Each structure stands twice: as structure tokens, then as C-alpha cells.
Amino acid sequence: MNIAMIGAGYVGLTTGACLASLGHRVSIFDIDVRRTAQLRQGQVPIYEPGLAEMIEAGVANGGLRFHDDLAKAVENTAAVFIAVGTPSRPDGSIDLSHVEAAARAVAPLLRGGAVIVVKSTVAAGTCKRIRELIAEERQALDIHVASNPEFLREGSAISDFLEPERVVFGFDDPASGEVLDRIYRPLASRTTIVRTSCVNAELTKHVANAFLAMKIEFVNQVADLCEKIGADVTSVSRGIGLDSRIGSSFLTAGPGFGGSCFPKDTRAYARLARAHGVGQSLVETVISGNQARRVALADRILAEAALVPGDTVAVLGLAFKANTDDTRESAALAIVPRLAERGVRVRLHDPKAPMADELRHERVTWSASPYAAADGAQAVVMLTEWDEYRDLKIGHLKRVMSGNHLFDFRNLYAAEDVTGAGLVHHSIGRPAQRPRELGAVPAHARIQPRAAAGRRLRTA
Fold this sequence. Notes:
With 460 residues, this protein is an alpha/beta fold. The chain has 17 helices and 14 strands. It has an eight-stranded mixed sheet, sandwiched between helices.
């Protein structure tokens, strides 16, 4: 099938490349002519494992093309996906101006009977609004509108698309459902297809992300309690996660959720509910709790390492999670400025994410490696769970540091490995562990590392 994708951002590129891999002929349009020029030259502007190779294969076999001419991109297409940005407004609601502009631009170019599929994450009721806009532009009701929310996790988006747990179709007329069935037919035998109305599909995306965000905030609150009473949140999480009614996913304690979805979607969901006079106190608590958590962690670093103005801290990890270069609403964006405001010098490192504009400050600098960032630092803070950081030689890290505090906010390391190298181990959901020479607890009383921590930290 001939498909057009409006928007060459994260969702548009990943979805377009995956649809091409299923055998469709996909044309991707973006208003940014520099971006489309880069993509034609094989330069992929975002990092997502496997995406560059998939795009290269799609271009090579003719299934994937990039356009800066909208008319050419949508020519002879049966379906046009809208995958443009939907940023948050100050009040938490979603800015739909890009979606509406895309719909208005494409409306006069389509042949009758075509389907516009809203892939962007939007407020419930948006498809109805888009249908009205298109009818106004065309002076006819001959274009269909459907919803097909994305459930892609950054870092595993390709497998999420090709091996999904479910695919959600939202449509209010049979023709739209038939087109979506044809598009996703190659996946139908390996997943569950949820066929529902547009408004149900739109709401499903926000409700799903709000629920997952609640699990993260819940386990982080459990972690706070564990630190106070001497329990281990990793053991508690495993114990409750084995209950099939709860499940183990999204029960890993850490510095809070970030990225392009959970923060924005929880705010939008809460804003929608408020607009309709329906209280959503659980989600409101999740939003405020996640914001407060980053401030509390920054203050914990300052207090537990006894930092004073002029001290240096190495912050490892700007991306909101591993295997992506996305820094949007990451923990670093809240923690680093608070440290700098207190007079602390901060050295940053991330293997993929670039320096974010929000972090530019006279006391914030970039380092070429984790060890360069830690050189002479009073403390090291781990914020992203990159494998590169799991493999650090802790003995060498200690030797280049001037202090002895390791804030392991992703619980990457075994406490005995860190303390054995002479560092104080500050983790999430477990009391701090100190080296023996600093008055550590007896070895038999130490909290054991989580079973899923991956490779043990090397000490030499």
C-alpha cells in the first residue's frame, strides 16, 4: 500500500521505516528541508538502536522515500499518517496546532476516500476536530479520519512495532477500519488488534501512560521508605512483581520518569479530567511527586557528600534512560541546575545524548569520558543506566576522584564492590553502605545487590 508519513521526528521515522519493512511503500515528509536532505544522504538525526540500518535498507529497496514537497509525498496514497509534535502548554494541555496545520495542509491534496491516521499523541476528541477541519477545507465529507496511537519505547521501538503486545485502531466508519486492517495485516497473526472508536483509542494512550507512571512513582515512594527502615526495594519489588495482578514491569526504583511521553501525557490526562470536572487525584500526585523527587535527590547529593561551593561533582548520564539520546525531562535537567545554583561545579558525560541547552551554565562543563568527568570530583552521580557505566572500573574511578561518594541512582552496582574500592555507596531504596575504614556495617549485615543488576562491577 502507498502510505505517507507527515513528520520525520522520532515517531514518524520509526513508524515509517517499520511500515516499509512490512512491504508498504512509504513516503516521509517533513517541513524541515534540512532534515529531509540529511535523511536522503543517510544521516539519521536521532539515535535508536537498529533504526539507521532499517532506514538504509528501506531506501535501498525503494520502499522508503523522503520528501520536502507535500504534494509529491501524498500523491496516490491510501493513508496519510500524521506524526508531528504535540508539545505541552503551560497549563498541561496539549498544543494541537501542528496536527491541525498538517491536516489543513494535506486535506486539499488527497483523493476522495483516503484515510488520515492520527499517530501523534493527542487529547481525546481530536479526531473529531480533525474531521471537521478537513471537511471545512474540502467542502466535503469524503476523507476518513482514524486514530492509531503509538506505544513505542525509546531504546526498543523497532521490536515494539514489529512484535507488539497490541495494536489499537480507533475508527468511526468501516472504511477506516478496513484500511488499517490492510496496513497491519502482516502483524495480525502475532498480536492482538484492538478495534474501537477514535475517542477510545485516543484516551487509551493517555490512560496507559498515566498508569505506568503511577507504578514508577509508587515504587519510588516505596524506595524512600526502604531507605529509612533498612529494607531493600529491589527485593520488595521482585516480591510484589511476581504477583500476576501487579506484574514486574515499571517497578524499578530510580530518579523518576522522563522523556517525551510520561511527563507530557500525565499532565495532559490530568488537564483533560479537570476540564470535565472529574478529579484524578492519583495522577495529580504522580506529577507533583515526580517533580519533587529530582529536587530531593539533588539535595541528598549536597547533604550526604557535604558539598560546599567550589566542589566538583561528576554526573554520568543526560538521557532520560539508556539506549536513547533523548534528554527531554530527564533527571539531569532538574538535578544539575540545582547543584550549579548551590555553587558546585558539575562535569557531564553521556555516550549518546548531547549537551542540553537547559544545562548550559558557567559551572557546568562537558567531559570526553566518565573518568575525565570524575577526575578530582568529590562525588560521582549515576543518572542513566548505560552499559558503558555498568562496565566502569570502580578502582580506577576511586583513584581519579578526590572524594569518596558514589550516588548510584540506577542501582547498577553491588554495594560490596563499591565499598570494597573505598567508596560510599548511595543507592535507591537501600541505606547507604560505607567502606569498613569509614565505619561500614559488618559484611553479613550488608544489603545484597539485586539479582538483575547485570554484570558485576569490576574493581580493578
